[in-house]
Amino acid sequence: MKLISTSQMRLDKYLTEYFATTPEPLSRTKIQTLIRTGYISVNNQQVSSNYQLQINDEIEIKSPEISTNQELVGQEMDLKIMYQDDDLMIIDKPNGLVVHPAPGHYENTLVNGLLGLDVNWSTASGELRPGIVHRIDRQTTGLLVVAKNDFTHQELQKQIQNKILHRRYRALVHGVITENRAKINAPIGRSPFDRKKMAVTGQNSKPAVTNILVIERFSDYTYIECELETGRTHQIRVHLQYINHPVYGDPTYGYLSDKKESFGQYLHAYELELVHPRTGKIIKITSELPLEFSEKLASLREKE
């Protein structure tokens, strides 16, 4: 597989962060081994793990463990398209849909659905992520934007980095948050105790900021809005667990009882606001809460 670098950082760190968002993350040690043994190259040259990537460097990965000859196939999928033009598309993702393929999981993802459309997608995120500018978790519902060309893709990524593109979420969390507004500023990295999880940690972490606004309080829960200033893996879920108010239904960062919640986590990407890369027009799209989310809120209100 091939990737096009979108950041300036060490090669091993870049790939660790890239594969951290896949269903089967690779450790930094494993990636360093693959680089050292020649399975990973940059611009057709063998390099070391501390090679400093430049934007648009071509990274080629030949390891059979993380690459495949299997061609991604388009699948007919009933995607809910909220907006589209010649440059981009905004999709309302349902619960349970994985965004992009990964080793061992090459079908029934959003990317397969995108490839099933008669559209040319951007290639800036690599062969396994055509069009994907950012992602949301499998059990997170709501809005995400995909790019139809590399110009749009790169400009949208710049908007995310420069905090021009705004992503707002709605979440139902355990416990009562007493503050009306709060800013969670805590670095996130791979958990030192469980490599499949992220955590607030000072080790190999990156800055992460989440703003929260209380919408409604119940006896044992709080309905909130979250706005991201950064985009770390599992950021909202990790930050809310960190302040002891995990997302209700979160099977990974929530309570043991949350694993029994059939709907999964009550986290919804409800609003996306961006500046169109080509026209300069502000695009602001909102998405209604899933039925299960709305019914849960209604049930809590009845109990109150």
Walk me through what this model shows.
- With 304 residues, the protein is α+β, with helices and mostly antiparallel strands.
- It folds into two domains: 60 residues, Structural Genomics Hypothetical 15.5 Kd Protein In mrcA-pckA Intergenic Region, Chain A; 224 residues, Pseudouridine synthase (2-Layer Sandwich), CATH 3.30.2350.10.
- Helices cover 19% and strands 27% of the residues.
- Strands 5, 6, 7, 8, 9, 13, 14, 15 and 16 form a nine-stranded mixed beta sheet that branches. The protein has a four-stranded antiparallel beta sheet with strand order 1-4-2-3.
- Helix 1 packs across helix 2.
- The protein is globular, with a radius of gyration of 19 Å.
- The model has no long low-confidence stretch (mean pLDDT 90).
- Belongs to the pseudouridine synthase RluA family.
Structural class: alpha+beta
Average pLDDT, rounded to a whole number, is 90
Distance between the termini: 54 Å
Percent strand equals 25-35%
- Count the DSSP helices: 6
Q: Spell the H/E element sequence.
A: EHHEEEEEHEHEEEEEEEHEEH
Fraction of residues in helices? 10-25%
Largest sheet: 9 strands, mixed
What is the overall silhouette? globular
The low-pLDDT segments are: none
Q: CATH homologous superfamily of the largest domain - what is it?
A: Pseudouridine synthase
CATH C-level name of the largest domain: Alpha Beta
Number of individual domains: 2
The number of strands is: 16
Architecture (CATH level 2) name of the largest domain: 2-Layer Sandwich
Radius of gyration, rounded?
19 Å
Please name the CATH topology of the largest domain: Pseudouridine synthase
Function: Responsible for synthesis of pseudouridine from uracil.
Catalytic activity: a uridine in RNA = a pseudouridine in RNA
Enzyme class: isomerase
Organism: Spiroplasma syrphidicola EA-1
